[in-house]
Write a structure and sequence with these properties.
The protein is mostly helical. It contains 49 helices and nine strands. It starts with 5 loop residues before the first helix and ends with a helix.
């Protein structure tokens, strides 16, 4: 019987009620040991089963070893018959994760998507309850997969409830709804105590209530301790925390059991197989038999359920484990290792042997090495790192010990465990003799610092390591410097150029795949400090030299990646570098190709980076609706995978889209979210785009003076080398002209002219001509305006084309050529209306009014056009889904591509049809805005 918890039970009941209506939900129940988490979860199971819900349930177990996906394997066992219904990539990923088949190591997030789909299939058309207790003890990849699945829940009718202990720090689930349990109120606490210890004296009752603090487990167990042999150990004033005193109470109960029973309990506490047969086989040589379990069962401490040994509470297990003498624990570990003799138990055997080791042991180290390899192959990078590190501790040979510790550092970094990665790298670096190993360790250390936001420290590590190995391993040095370019980008332009100079100074082998990549970066980014340009920085190659070929660098990077000699991040970096050179279409095509590849392979962790380059290109091409959909999806991925850098970045690009729309509140909210992520005085990653967004917003709303102030920030260090600094220059020029202070944009415009001369793109030349026209005398301006319009592609960059037409029309009206002005102002108005750029459309309409053609403009098709068509009425996710459905893709295929469940896809389509004025998906292909991108 549950005492109290009315509010908590209501929260559970509400989740179950929503699930019956098809709405999914998630809840993380947190609290101290014994506070009632398991009881509340049991209530959820009882309520769900009474309502006809199928239930899948699992639990974390406090193992000494981490076995990848062990928690997920136990949880999903009832649903595995539905595996064939999963899309092939998801089925392969889940098979590999659970050890059901060999395959490439899957990302935990992609496994999480497979879990979501599997649970949806298992639920069928009805609701489902998925429950995980003691989630703080889940292995890392099981935890990551389940949290990702929980974050993607929407319309499947699935309820996920987790119970997690306070203070363990092993079940981080930011963003998921939480319910924190505290002690029972006095009346409920008294009722529970009376139900379990009705014969207590008033004094003892008062003492137990005071000590328990409303903790239900304490209310049940402290009376037992009070009646025991040594109550003072538990009730000593000012003694241990309640959890420790409960463990003492449990230990007191265990110590009164026969020795053979205590031996069996110790074996069960140390076993991680969940198989009572293993425990009993290990017990035999230690003098215990199955009959010795009866006293523990009779005492209510331990039982066997469906062949699985279970302690009544995890604190009993902890008490048995922690208070057993060392010699008995080691003997138990050795007995368990001997009992784990099946091939599929090799990993558990290795960890039991490791726990029984008292010093270096090469045989056990080799077994752990093999365990690490298997964990890595299944995507259990944290487990692999731990096994390699433990193997290093047991290794006698110094070279092999260093090698294993280096592997631990590498795979801890892949797991995102940056502190441990840096620690392992630092410990092994001092002993590493091989230059390649030193380079690898420096890369791990540098990346750990980088992702912590310690950009100067990361840069120093990477550059220093490159100098260390340059003479003997120039290719390795180049790889370090390529990564150092990324860190330098977040420091300042001088550091970027210093790093480029180091890369340029290397003599690289022609047959090294990193060579064409390095040359592409040098050709694109390296500026000669000895040139006589005012900035003392000019391109090494003069303007007539053909632009470097991105395709060659991409081919080389793919070759190096396949050979394992270059990080996959190099390909991502090439997208960004291409954008700095104005190769927007090439960058978009490469990013889109890599996005497609990542979706197919389940590389969810890579998607935020790739989608950022894609959304940048979409904004530059005036594809604002596409940019909104891309950024919204990517922001969800960044949050779900804990990549705070990209959370900031995507808020900032959303701010730019909202700025063009003239939605001031939404723009400022997004910019504030982006800028708030700076930590420890460091600049927030989204700062450049946020400043640009606020500058565009002010310029569009006619606040030119404020726009100049904001945009000038992008022309100064440490931001002036960022892509936003270059691309925002025409906005700065226009704003400065409007307030009569063109000199404030002069230096930045000179840099922009130089850049446009290097990249040699017609659209960049058009923007240069537009700025020159704004700066020119009236006698020279018309030729510049006409030339600028002629260079604009009528099918691309609609926002810039419309702005040039607007500015030309404004100039024509100012020189009293109203009839000529109308043509350009109408074209500008039509462009702005179609883009949904409200403030810019208002400005064009005002100018048309001034020419005497305002009424005609308001009655025109342009003024009545629906901005962005379907994008104006659909949410970003609905737009994505309807576009894919318009191409003929099934709900299952759409779900696989967007990392959703098929039922969620169907839910969004159902909501989209009435907004579009249609009745079925067959009509989607007839909507131009949806078919246009197919």
């Amino acid at each position: 019987m549950m005492h109290g918890r009315t509010t908590e039970r209501s929260a559970v009941e509400a989740l179950l009620a929503d699930a019956r209506e098809g709405t999914s939900g998630v809840l993380v129940v947190r609290g101290e040991p014994g506070i009632g988490k398991t009881t509340l979860l049991a209530y959820a199971v009882e309520a769900a089963e009474a309502a006809g819900f199928p239930v899948v349930r699992g639990s974390g177990v406090e193992f000494e070893a981490e076995l990848p996906y062990a928690g997920l394997s136990l949880l999903l066992r009832p649903a595995l018959t539905h595996l064939p219904a999963l899309p092939e990539p998801q089925r392969r990923a889940l098979d590999a994760a659970l050890g059901l088949a060999s395959g490439e190591a899957p990302e935990p997030m992609f496994v999480g998507l497979a879990v979501l789909t599997l649970l949806s299939e298992y639920a069928g058309d009805g609701p489902l309850l998925c429950l995980v207790d003691d989630a703080q003890w889940l292995d890392r990849v099981s935890s990551d997969a389940l949290v990702f699945a929980a974050r993607r829940l929407h319309a499947e009718g699935v309820v996920m409830v987790f119970g997690a202990r306070d203070g363990e720090g092993a079940f981080p689930a930011p963003g998921l709804p939480e319910l924190r349990l505290t002690g029972l109120p006095p009346a409920d606490a008294g009722a529970l105590l009376d139900a379990h210890a009705a014969d207590l004296s008033p004094t003892a009752r008062y003492r137990v209530l005071a000590e328990a603090g409303g903790n239900p487990l304490a209310l049940r167990e402290l009376p037992v301790a009070l009646a025991g042999d040594n109550p003072s150990a538990v009730f000593r004033p000012g003694a241990l925390p309640l959890t420790s005193r409960l463990q003492l109470a449990f230990h007191g109960q265990v110590s009164r059991l026969p020795v053979a029973t205590q031996t069996l309990l110790l074996l069960a506490a140390l076993d991680d197989s969940g198989d009572v047969g293993v425990v009993l086989r290990a017990a035999e040589p230690l003098g215990a038999s199955p009959g010795d379990l009866e006293p523990a069962d009779a005492a209510g401490l331990f039982s066997v359920v469906d062949g699985t040994p279970r302690f009544r509470h995890p604190l009993i297990r902890a008490a048995v484990h922690q208070r057993a003498p060392l010699d008995r624990r080691m003997a138990a570990h050795r007995a368990l290792a001997d009992a784990l003799d099946a091939p599929d138990q090799a990993d558990r055997r290795a960890w039991q042997l490791a726990a029984a080791s008292t010093g270096p042991d090469e045989a056990v180290a080799d077994a752990l090495d093999a365990t690490a390899d298997r964990a890595r192959e299944r995507g259990g990078y944290a487990a692999a790192a731990r096994a390699y590190e433990f193997a290093a501790r047991l290794t006698v040979d110094q070279h092999r010990r260093t090698h294993r510790l280096a592997l631990a550092a590498q795979w801890a970094s892949e797991a995102g465990d940056l502190d441990r990665a840096r620690d392992f790298a630092a410990r092994s670096a001092a002993q590493a003799k091989d230059p390649k190993v030193r380079a690898t360790l420096a890369l791990v250390h540098g990346l750990a610092d980088f992702w912590h936001g310690a950009f100067p420290s990361a840069h120093k590590t990477l550059v220093g390591a490159a100098e260390d190995v340059a003479a003997v391993e120039p290719g390795a040095a180049a790889r370090l410097l390529v990564q150092a370019l990324h860190t330098a980008w977040y420091i300042n332009e001088d550091e970027l150029q210093s790093t480029m100079a180091r890369l340029n100074a290397l003599t690289l082998p022609e047959d090294d795949p990193i060579t064409p990549v390095a040359r592409y970066l040098i050709d694109c980014l390296y500026l000669d400090p000895d040139d006589d340009h005012p900035d003392k920085k000019q391109p090494t190659n003069p303007a007539p030299t053909p632009a470097p070929a991105l395709a060659d660098a991409v081919t080389a990077a793919r070759t190096a990646r396949a050979a394992g000699t270059v990080d996959a991040r190099v390909l991502q970096m090439l997208c960004g570098v291409a954008l700095t050179q104005g190769h927007d279409t090439d960058a978009y095509d490469l990013a889109a190709e890599l996005v497609t590849e990542s979706r197919r392979q389940g590389g969810i962790g890579r998607l935020p980076t790739l989608l950022f380059f894609q959304v940048e290109a979409e904004i530059f091409d005036s594809r604002h609706a596409d940019a909104l959909a891309t950024a919204s999806e990517a922001l969800g991925f960044a949050r779900d995978t804990g990549q705070q850098q990209w959370v900031s970045q995507f808020h900032s690009v959303l701010a730019v889209v909202r700025a063009f729309e003239g939605d001031e509140d939404a723009c400022r909210r997004a910019a504030d979210e982006s800028l708030a992520s700076g930590a420890g005085g460091a600049m927030a990653p989204g700062t450049p785009w946020s400043y640009w967004a606020l500058g565009i917003l002010d310029l569009g709303l006619g606040r030119a003076a404020t726009a100049v102030t904001r945009l000038e920030q992008l022309s100064r260090e440490p931001l002036r080398h960022h892509i936003c600094s270059t691309r925002s220059t025409p906005d700065l020029v226009e704003a400065a002209i409007r307030i009569g202070e063109p000199g404030r944009a002069a230096e930045q415009f000179a840099r922009f002219e130089d850049w446009a001369g290097r990249v040699r793109r017609p659209w960049a030349d058009a923007l240069v001509l537009r700025c020159r026209a704004l700066l020119a005398d009236d006698s020279d301006a018309e030729e510049l305006w006409t030339a600028a319009l002629a260079l604009h592609d009528p099918e691309r960059r609609a926002m810039e084309r419309a702005r040039t037409a607007l500015l030309f029309g404004e100039w024509l009206r100012r020189v009293r050529r109203k009839t000529d002005a109308r043509e350009h102002l109408r074209a500008a108005l039509e462009g702005f209306e179609r883009l949904g750029a409200r403030p810019w459309a208002d400005r064009a309409r005002t100018e048309l009014d001034a020419t005497g053609a305002g009424g005609a403009a308001r009655g025109s098709a342009a003024a009545q056009a629906s901005p962005n068509g379907a994008a104006a009425v659909l949410t970003p996710q609905e737009l994505q889904i309807t576009r894919l459905a318009a191409q003929g893709m099934s709900n299952r295929d759409i779900a696989a591509q967007l990392f959703l469940s098929p039922r969620t896809v169907g839910h969004h389509l159902y909501k989209a049809y009435p907004k579009l004025g249609i009745l079925s998906r067959t009509e989607l292909a007839g909507i131009p805005d949806l078919a246009a991108r197919s």
